[in-house]
Structures are given as C-alpha cells and as structure tokens.
Amino acid sequence: TTDFPPAPQHDEIIVPDSAPVTSPGPFEGPEKLLEVWFAPSLNQLPDVPESSLSGGLRARAAREEGEKWKGLRRVPREVWEEMLDIVKCKVLSVVEGEELDAYLLSE
Amino acid sequence: SSLFVAPHLLILKTCGTTLNLLGLYRIIEIARAYCGYTNVWRCFYSRKSFFFPERQHGPHRDWRDEVDFLDKVFGTAGAAYTVGPMNRDHWLLYLTSPNTQPRLPYDSKLPSSLIAAPPSSSPPAAILPTKYQDTTLEILMSYMDPKARAPFFHTEEQTSSTPGHELGQIISSKLGIDELFPKDETTLDSFGFDPCGYSANAVIGTGMPEASHVEGKPGGGYFTIHVTPEEGWSYASFECNVPLPITSSSTKPPAVEGRPTLQKLIRNVVGIFQPCRLSITLFVSTTASGSGDSASSVLGASETEARAWQSFGTDLLGGDFVRKDRIGYEFDGYDLVFACFEKK
Questions:
Q1: A interface mutation test: which of B11, B34, B52, B65 has the most A CBs within 10 A?
Q2: Is B127 within 8 Å of A10 when comparing Cβ atoms?
Q3: Of the residues B60, B117, B205, B218, which has the fewest C-beta atoms closer than 10 A?
Q4: Is B174 left (phi over 0), alpha (psi -120 to 50) or beta?
Q5: How far apart are the first and last CA of chain A?
Q6: According to the 3-state scheme, what is the secondary structure of chain B?
Q7: Interface predicted TM-score of the whole assembly (ipTM), two decimals
Q8: Is residue A72 left, alpha or beta, with left meaning phi > 0 and alpha meaning psi from -120 to 50?
C-alpha cells in the first residue's frame, strides 16, 4: 500500500481565475510535459466492471468493447476542453488517428 | 501546446505560463468517471529549466512545488530527478512506480453537465497487436540561428489574410517538417501564431507504436513541434514516439521502410531549427519490449553499453557541435539517455 501525505487544502494549489496568467513580456518556450498512463499498453487496458462507470456510459462501454472509441477516447471533446480551461489552453484543432487523437492547443 | 489521447494514456504538453499540473486532478477524475480507471499505471512529468521561472504560477513557480504537488497525488510512489548541469540546460523529471492509486485533495465529482455529455461515436476499427515498442525521443533546442528563426515571424498582412492553419501548412512545407516522415503515412496539423510562433502535431501511421492494422507494417506514433522564435529566448522542441529503424548489426530492425534512422531524424530536426544549444533525451521501455532493447542499444550500433555510449557520442551532430554532457539512467522499467550539445 502507498503511504500518502496529508491532502493539501484546495486553495493552496488552485490559482484564482483573476490571477494574471498571461501578461506582456517574453514568452516561455520550454514546455511542461505530463504523461498519465492508465495501462502499460493499448492492448492491456484494465478490466473495468460496468458498475464503476457513471450513468449512461455503462451500456455504451459494453457496446464499444473491442472498438476504436474505447478507454479515454470515449471521453467527449467538451470534457477535455473543460480540463484544458483549468490548464489555461484552448483547442485549435483535432486530428483523429486510428489509435490516437491529437489536439493542437493555443499558447 | 498539444494534447494526445489514446485509450490507455494521455499526454499534455503546454508552454508559456499554463497550469499544466492543475489539469492532473481533472484527468484522474475523468478517467474514473468515463473509463472506470481507478489506478494510474505510470505518471511522468518533465520539463527543461525555464527561461523566466519568476513568471510561472501555481505549482510551477518552483520545481520543489511541482514535486510537492505530485507527491500529494502519488505519495511515496513518485521520484524526482534533476538531470544535467544546474546552471545551464538541466532537465527535470518526476515519475511514479507502476500501478499507483492516486489521491485527490477534494471529493472527486465531475460537474453533472459533463457526465451527461454524449460520447462521440465513429465506425469501429479492429486493433491487432504487434511487437510493443515504447520509445520517446525529445529534442529541446534553444538560441536558434536568426536564419532559422525568420520563417516563424509573420507580417501583419500575412496574419490578417491567412488563417493560422494555412500559415502553419506553409511553414511546414517550406522547412520540410512535412517530410520528416514519409508523406503517405503522415497526417500533419500545424498552426502559425500571430505575430510569431508555430505548433505542429503529426499522427504517423496508425498513431500508436504497439498496434498495426496491417500485418507486417510497423506501428505508428506521433510527433509534435513547438517553436518560440523570439531573439534572446528562442526555443524549439521536437518530441516523437514513432518506431524507427535500428542500425544495429545484432538487432533486426522493424519493417519501417522510408522512415529515417534515429540519428538521421535528430540531424534533420537540428538542421531545421539550427540551435546553439540543445538537449536530447531518449526514453525506452525495457520491461515492455521484452527484447533487450535498452535506450543505449536503440541509440547505437550495438547492445553493449560502451558502444552505445559511443554512438550517442560527440559525432552525432557532426563537427559543428560539441557534446557537453551524456548521462544515463536505469529506472524501473525504463532506460533514459540524456545528452547536451553546444555549437562550437
């Protein structure tokens, strides 16, 4: 089991919307790169009991077994956009590959 | 900036003063709600040292804050590394051990409006497994030559009359970015920013290294490029996970006709952006490949460490560059080779 430290208070880590996230001045080129893997490979997605999925997604998940739009790719674009609002990025365009969606972002 | 989403992983690469790590909580929530994923197999967070650290916000103000943030999510499963010279182009990495249950600092609950949103649909496609190869190359380049920076600036007339995607296409074609990989397997999406700057995402082949839809064909992958061309803090990055031919006498290369070797790809990219300084990192999964492919063997002409080091050596970029550092790491399940070069 993992020994977690105490959880932080919400306001310790969230920058208020009013914070000046961008202002005139030089633009920082070096990127922050975050990779979150939920399985070691495409072919080793975890078995997920339908009961753990939210609402109407259960039936859909069952239907999609073995199909292209499985795992994280079943998440609608607007849900990723809401996450990207937190990060302070906007979607410019999307390319849908056979096993991968590539979103080009602002900033 | 770019976001890549595959069924089993998500890659978020953002520049400027974006709050990349603040997206982590939502990513974990979304994966739980939509996919039932309660554990994170691996999490990687990395970046080069900032030009202007004082301009960053939230956890990105300092590497220690970023590590604290991640530790609060992953507990003792995470480890942080500083790689390279601290007073120049060092590189920072945080990674977790396999299969960790993340912890959110608040009650996880997505807004109901998001849960209710209908998932997109598309015709089904079969996924056939082939040999799994997880290799990621990253080239971080700074202080570009003025000639290399010039194509990324646009006049007011250009930006007012040409949409960003068209500008991106023009730049991609002019600089040969659309020919880094064979055109017939490249889907390129690029954008030219006003008044300067450039981003590109490319999906190569099927899009993921370990899957191929046609037997005998190599797996695909992605590459992504971001450029900030302004003098004084010019910067370009290239990241790629496409399987490449291996120039090894002992390792049979995969069938990747038309694709450049790793060394040729690095030279082509560096030739486009002409940096004065650059760092190169190569991450190779060692447990998943199961074939003894280490970062060093993929990089070079031999599986022996000594010869591999030599192949990622001073002559990688020809006589114009001098190698300042070369560092190797063996992580749990991954090998990493890092090297810095400077123009003579």
A1: B34
A2: no
A3: B117
A4: alpha
A5: 39
A6: CEEEEECCEEEEEECCCCCHHHHHHHHHHHHHHHHCCCCECEEEEEEECCCCHHHCCHHHHCHHHHHHHHHHHHHHHEEEEEECCCCCCCEEEEEECCCECCCCCCCCCCCHHHHCCCCCCCCCCCCCECCCCCEEEEEEEEEECHHHHHHHECCHHHHHHCCHHHHHHHHHHHHCHHHCCCHHHEEEEEEECCCECEEEEEEECCCCCCECCCCCCCCCEEEEEEEECCCCCCEEEEEECCCCCCCCCCCCCCCCCCCCCHHHHHHHHHHHHCEEEEEEEEEEECCCCCCCCCHHHHHCCCCCHHHHHHHCCCCCCHHHEEEEEEEEEEECCEEEEEEEEEEC
A7: 0.88
A8: alpha
Specify the pLDDT at position B256: 60
Q: Is the dihedral of CA A54, A60, A66, A70 positive or negative?
A: negative
For residue B133, give the chain A residue with the closest CA: A41
Question: In this complex, do A100 and B33 lie within 8 Å of one another by their Cβ atoms?
Answer: no
Mean model confidence pLDDT for chain B? 84
- Model confidence pLDDT, tens digit, residues A62-106: 445 555 678 999 999 999 999 999 999 999 999 999 889 999 999
Name residue, tokens 């447990």.
Answer: B287
Q: Which residue has the tokens 């397997």?
A: B185
Cα–Cα distance for residue pair B176/B190, rounded to 1 Å: 13
The Cα A17–Cα A85 span in angstroms is 10
Interface check B311 vs A, CB under 8 A: no
pLDDT at B149 over 80: yes
Average pLDDT, stretch B82-87? 91
Instruction: Say how many CB pairs under 8 Å bridge A and B.
Output: 376
- All residues of chain B having their beta carbon less than 8 Å from the beta carbon of residue A70 are 7
Residues of chain A found within 8 Å of residue B127, distances taken between Cβ atoms: 42-43, 66, 68, 99
Interface test mutation site (partner B, options A13, A23, A32, A65, max chain B beta carbons within 10 A): A32
Q: Which residues from B are below 8 Å from A21, CB to CB?
A: 17-19, 57
Given CB atoms, is B210 within the 8 Å cutoff of chain A?
yes
